Amino acid sequence: MRRFAHKRTVLAATGLLALASLGCDSSTEKGSGGGESSDRTETVSVPLGGNAYLTSGGGPDAVTQEGITTWKNSGSTFSVFVKLRTPTVVTPRLRARAPEGEESTVRLRVDGYEEEARVTDSDYSSVAFGETEIEESGYVRFDLTGVEKTGDEFVEATDLKLEVPRGTTVHAVRSNEDNAFYWSRRGPSVHLNYGMPDATVEWVHSAITVPEGKDPVGAYHMANGFNEGYFGIQVNAEAERRVLFSVWSPHDTDDPSSIPDSLRVQLVAKGDNVTADEFGGEGSGGQSHLTYSWETGTPYRFLTRAVPDGDGNTIYTAYFYPPEEGKWRLLASFKRPQTDTWYKGWYSFLENFDPGMGHVERKAYYHDHWARDTDGTWHAIEQATFTGDGTARSGLRQDFAGGVEEEGFYLRHCGFFDDSVSLGQTFGDPASGRQPPSVNVDALPR
Prior knowledge:
Blueprint: H1 6-12, E1 41-47, H2 48-51, E2 52-56, E3 62-64, E4 67-70, E5 77-84, E6 88-97, E7 104-110, E8 113-119, E9 125-128, E10 132-134, E11 138-149, E12 156-165, E13 170-171, H3 180-186, E14 190-194, E15 201-209, E16 219-225, E17 229-237, E18 240-248, E19 266-270, E20 274-279, E21 285-291, E22 300-308, E23 314-321, E24 329-336, E25 347-352, E26 362-373, E27 378-380, E28 383-388, H4 390-393, E29 400-405, E30 408-413, E31 426-428
Antiparallel strand pairs: 1-12, 2-5, 3-4, 5-11, 5-13, 6-9, 6-10, 6-12, 7-8, 7-11, 14-25, 14-28, 15-22, 15-26, 16-17, 16-25, 17-18, 18-21, 19-24, 20-21, 22-23, 23-24, 26-27, 26-30, 28-31, 29-30
């Protein structure tokens, strides 16, 4: 299963600023229990395609970019996330329709309030729930569940409409221009960009520890990124985890088959049980992975080398240290053509590659950062600058954080939490008392 190259994630999201619309529109739709805006209130339409998730249940039930398009399971919960800048009173309405000749009852829960409404019209109409007071500002979760239905499905629904006092600031993804629904549901990606020593760096070493419960499906905790690739650990499915190492081709394309032979990333070597192939979709190049059941609470170490080959190419090699094995494992070594560089642009990131899991929080600690120069001297890395992709920078999603704690630098995102951290800050992680990694680079498997 191919996974996304983070470089393209960052670039593709940079144009989303205009889509993070703040404030309200006054459009309403009459219907069963509808009602219109007044001089004192206005109505915000929150598209489910960009702001809702299937948070429990499943089967065939799904949120698509059109909204809730399949809802058969009475055990399913669809959750809509909206941010309110101030406490307020809100009257929710659901723009929905029942199957032809059928009717359904759905329940809305929000901030301790619960009410049911019947949907009887096979044409879209706005079905009203009662007025409720939201007592705290920040992200608010509206839960929709099915109560009873006369047919196979409950309803199809496109929008949650919120009637609020005029002037209330509501934050939601309001337009799908430039595929904003997809990027928003994936959530913001965040990075740590490390201060490098004033030396020619050949090797970098780091470690990641993922706290318990912060490892949902779709998480990519990337340790050693560089200008031409990245290396870290993923949660690909409930029963599958991977160590992933990729190098981009210098030919800019999403289609690996279109890369000229002279610009293809070449596999030099790979370790036991490692799969290596090409990747595409978000940039293209060479990719390798090891299926490995890494665990939360355990530090995992990463070692990466970049060295020019003297013929206008650079060889990138990645090693992973499973603590239960007590030795470094070769993941893969790739040759990138038309590249003459040592290790540059060291960074880490945290991203979610599953748009259906953007409502679940992730976190990781990034620690034990060392860079080894061409003279064999290890340099402690003591600073990191916190940055984000376009989804974060535009404010499309505001649930992200980064900084330094006792365990080391950290990144945190998704989950619709409110204690966010501003981008652009530089954090220090003093290395006093630490020792360089004990690595005999000459004895590593080649």
